[in-house]
Amino acid sequence: MTNLKVEWAYRPDALVVTVTGELDAGTVVHLRDGLVAARAGAPVPPSAVVLDLSRLEFLDSGGLALLLEVHQECAAAGQALTVVGATRPVLRPLELTGLDQVFTVVPAVP
Predict the structure, then answer these.
(1) Model pLDDT, residue 110
(2) Which strand ranges, in their side-by-side order, compose the sheet holding 4-11?
(3) pLDDT digits (tens, 9 = 90+) for 37-46
(4) Domains of the chain by range and CATH?
(5) How confident is the model at residue 70 (pLDDT cuts 50, 70, 90)?
(6) Which SUPFAM superfamilies match (predicted)?
(7) Hey, is 34 helix, strand or coil?
(8) What are the CA-CA distances from residue 15 to residues 51, 82, 85 (Å)?
């Protein structure tokens, strides 16, 4: 059993991936697998990817590394990446590492 739940929804303008639980070195594979499945199942390639992390309770360096990979993949595919996460467990690690200046971080799903 994992401490991470990944769900996704397709919108006309974006793929929205909602992540609940703990994103750490032991669970990043579940988010990676979810992103691969979500992208593969998209009716058309999305122009934007929204990662809703507002339900995360914990985010460590393994999770941050994956977020950076996703950011790079989206940039290479010409997709905008937005990270939703106005909660302390998300904002604090992003701010400490300076990634809040790399990602577009918003308080709620646009």
Answers:
(1) 83
(2) 4-11, 14-23, 48-59, 80-84, 104-106
(3) 999 999 998 9
(4) 7-47+57-77+88-103 (3.30.750.24)
(5) very high
(6) SpoIIaa-like (SSF52091)
(7) helix
(8) 8, 10, 16
How far is the first Cα of the chain from the last one, in angstroms, to the nearest whole number?
31
pLDDT at 1 over 60: no
Q: What is the 3-state secondary structure (H, E, C) of 76-94?
A: HHCCEEEEECCCHHHHHHH
> In sequence order, which residues have a C-beta less than 8 Å from that of residue 27 and are 6 or more positions away?
2, 3, 4, 21, 63
Tell me how far apart the alpha carbons of residues 30 and 21 are, in angstroms, rounded to a whole number: 11
Pairing of strands 4-11, 14-23: antiparallel
3 state SS of 22: strand
Question: For residues 83 and 110, which has the higher predicted lDDT (pLDDT)?
Answer: 83
CA pair distance 9, 7, nearest whole angstrom: 7
Give the integer Cα–Cα distance in Å for 97 and 81.
18
